[in-house]
Amino acid sequence: MPGRLIFTSYALGFCKTVLQVVGLFSLVACLINFLDFARRYGGFDNFSVSAGLKVALLKLPQLLTEVFPFCILVAAMIFLRLANRRGELTILRAAGMPAIGFLAPLLAVAAGFGLLMTLAVDPVSPLSRGESNDVARFVRGPSAGGAGPSAQTWVSQQSGEGLLFIGGVQTRNTRIELQNATFLEFDGQGQLNVRRDARSAHVQDGRWILRDVILLKPGADPVALPEDSIATTLDAKKVRWQFVGVNEISIYEMPQALRAFRDMGLNPGRLVLRLFSLLMTPFMFVAMVLIAAPMSIVFSRGKPDAAMIGGAIAAGFAMHSLVVLAQAFGKTEALPPWLAVPLPVILSMTAAWLWLRQTESVA
């Protein structure tokens, strides 16, 4: 019973600390996003405070996916440091409880937040980012231009006996609308048959719907059409996956995306890397707690708080750098995806655990 009471108390306390740290970060991030939006779009007629606040809130999910591991690290440092100052950890250790006894609730909460990020926050992030872009586009208005300097993305599909190459700049996440789209249709001998330049294009009911089209054929004058359509073997999801990149694909879409990539003859390596990155999120959060534990419990005994905080943050950034470096090797296929993401996390967890085991005699 005492063990269960301690587990529940520490789990609830750590959860509260995490929410406080995340809440403080969210407040600061919203303020910064609002001020940045006001600075960039305050001169447009459609600008309003409500639009700025909406954009600031819609950008939060993406920011949380990037900084939440460090929120876990900071929260673990604060919680363990306060428990250590109150003498709770000393009493628990004197009663014969190993360090894993009072770290277990923190690890469980960290893993739970990792699952929450993977299953809830990460899938929402692309949608909220698309909505924020739509709000910014509305505030700019049509006179400010559309896609801006974004680079064109090209995809291809079978078109009868030939190939159809499609290039454009994505302007919406909600419907994968392309702006300044170009459609190049080649025959079986590789000769260009038709070129279509459209102001916008999107997939609907198995067809590309093109608006404000300039039709060009070899040896013929350009023809302007208000609308045109082209049959396609790509559905809206396949188009979105190709134009937005693998980082926009949630864990729920992974099975379909893997099959689609193989059907389209695309290399699924980066998609597999993305899948392992999502699956390892709970373990990364657990690693952050294990990194904070020896710093907060042991290192702070003979050193000032500033050294403890600096050491823990440096260790957290070192693990993050290892993850980024390993993912870079994974993208170049120098490391297999199943090794590129888990390797730095496992190494960090092992190093922190061995340090804690050595200093606190964890059995």
Record field, number of beta strands: 6
Topology pattern, helix = H, strand = E: HHHHHEEEEEEHHHHHHH
Main beta sheet strand tally, sense and closure: 6 strands, antiparallel
**Lateral arrangement of strands in the main beta sheet:** 1-2-3-4-5-6
Give the averaged pLDDT, no decimals.
Answer: 82
Number of helical segments with 4 or more residues: 12
* Structure class: alpha+beta
Proportion of residues in extended strands:
15-25%
**Low-pLDDT runs:** 145-149
Compute the CA-based radius of gyration: 26 Å
Net shape: elongated
N-to-C CA distance? 21 Å
Helix content: 55-70%
Descriptive overview:
- The chain has 363 residues and is an alpha+beta fold.
- It has a domain of 94 residues.
- Helices cover 63% and strands 16% of the residues.
- α1 packs across α2, α2 crosses α5 and α10 packs antiparallel against α12.
- The two termini are 21 Å apart.
Summed up, what is this model?
This protein has helices at residues 2-41, 49-58, 60-85, 88-94, 99-140, 236-244, 254-263, 269-279, 281-302, 305-331, 337-340, 342-360, and strands at 153-159, 162-170, 178-186, 192-204, 207-216, 223-231.
